[in-house]
Amino acid sequence: MSTELSALYQEMILDHNKRPRNFHGMPAANHHADGYNPLCGDKVTIYLDLDGDVVRDISFEGSGCAISKASASMMTEAIKGRTLAQVESLFSTFHDLVTGRSGGAAEPAALGKLVVFSGVREFPVRVKCATLAWHTLRAALQNQRQPASTE
Ligand code: ZN
Known about the structure:
The protein is α+β, with helices and mostly antiparallel strands. It has 4 helices and 4 strands; from the N terminus they run H-E-E-E-H-H-H-E. It starts with a helix and ends with a strand. Bound molecules: zinc ion.
């Protein structure tokens, strides 16, 4: 990755950390779950308003490091309006990207802005920060009572 590209990615993560999108509770949510990443101390709650199998609305609350917060913020932007099948496919592509399983060559176009997290694959602890919101999203979809964990 070029230095300019990695600086741009860093800037986007810092921007979403400072001004997280969809960062609020949701009284009308029909699904929600809590997530916790013990390695870093990141906490997140995901709220979903599901209409059939379409994500009509999504928001989050919580506290944690810049990567966990930016990842939750960008995830909410990426999946609003999508079907559950699209969400599952995006999660799987994102997971491959941050764990380096996609080989690190071509960054899948489907991810859009989420490619900014490609750099975390060098840092196993950070992978958990980047995937916490996604694991919690999955727990919310399953109406899981136990907090989702990255462990
Ligand atoms: Zn973290």
